[in-house]
C-alpha cells in the first residue's frame, strides 16, 4: 500500500511502535507478521494494521455508540479507551473487569452492549469470555502472540505500548467519527494523539 493511502504516515506508526510485536507468535497471527527482527521480536505489517483499523472503524460506525463497550485491564490502555469512548459516545471499562458485568443482570454494574472492543485477549480475558457467552461480537487489538479463536475482528497491533495504544485508539475515534459523518476531514478532529496517551 502506498504511503499516501495510509491513515497516518508510516513514520508515525513506526515512531509509536505500532508494528512491534513480541518474541512469540501464535499460529493465528502469522498472516499479520511481516518479519522477525535480529533481537527475536516479530514485526507486524503496518499495511495490514492500517487496513484493519480502517475497517474496524467502519464496522463500529454502524452501531449506536452507546451500545459499544471498550475495555482495557492494561494500565496503558486506560486513558486511550476513556478518550475513545468520550470522543465517540461509547462506554468504557478501564481497569478490572468485574465478573458478571455482561452476564448477571442483578449486578449494579451490569451492561448490555451490542459489541465489545478489547485491548488484549489475555488481559481482557473475562470480558472476552462473557461477550462470547452472550453471543455478541468482539473486536480486539491483537499482538503477535495472541490467540484469536473467539475474536470476530482482529486489529493486529502492538497492544502493550503506551504510544501504540494511544495512536490506535485515536485513529479509531477519528475514523468512526468520519464514517458517521460527524467530521468531514482529519483536520476537523480536534484531539491530538497525545491526548490519548497515558502519562508516565
Notes on the protein architecture:
The protein is an alpha/beta fold and about 200 residues long. It has one domain: Rossmann fold (3-Layer(aba) Sandwich), CATH 3.40.50. It contains 5 helices and 7 strands, in the order H-E-E-H-E-H-E-E-H-E-E-H. The strands form 2 sheets. A 5-stranded parallel sheet has the order 4-3-5-6-7. Strands 1-2 form a two-stranded antiparallel sheet. Helix 3 links the parallel strand 3 (about 70) and strand 4. The protein starts with 9 loop residues before the first helix and ends in a 21-residue tail after the last helix. The model has no long low-confidence stretch (mean pLDDT about 95).
Please supply descriptive tags for the structure shown above.
single chain; 200 residues; alpha/beta; Rossmann fold; 5 helices; 7 strands; globular
Strand line-up of the largest beta sheet: 4-3-5-6-7
Q: Write the element-wise H/E pattern from the N-terminal end onward.
A: HEEHEHEEHEEH
- The CATH homologous superfamily is termed Glucose-6-phosphate isomerase like protein, domain 1
What characterizes the major β-sheet? 5 strands, parallel
Shape: globular
CATH architecture annotation: 3-Layer(aba) Sandwich
Structural class by SSE content = alpha/beta
Q: What is the CATH class name? A: Alpha Beta
- Residue share in helices? 25-40%
CATH fold-type name: Rossmann fold
How many DSSP helices? 5
Distance between termini?
34 Å
- How many domains? The number is 1
Which runs of at least 5 residues are low in confidence (pLDDT < 50)?
none
Q: Mean pLDDT, rounded to whole units? A: 96
**Alpha carbon gyration radius:** 16 Å
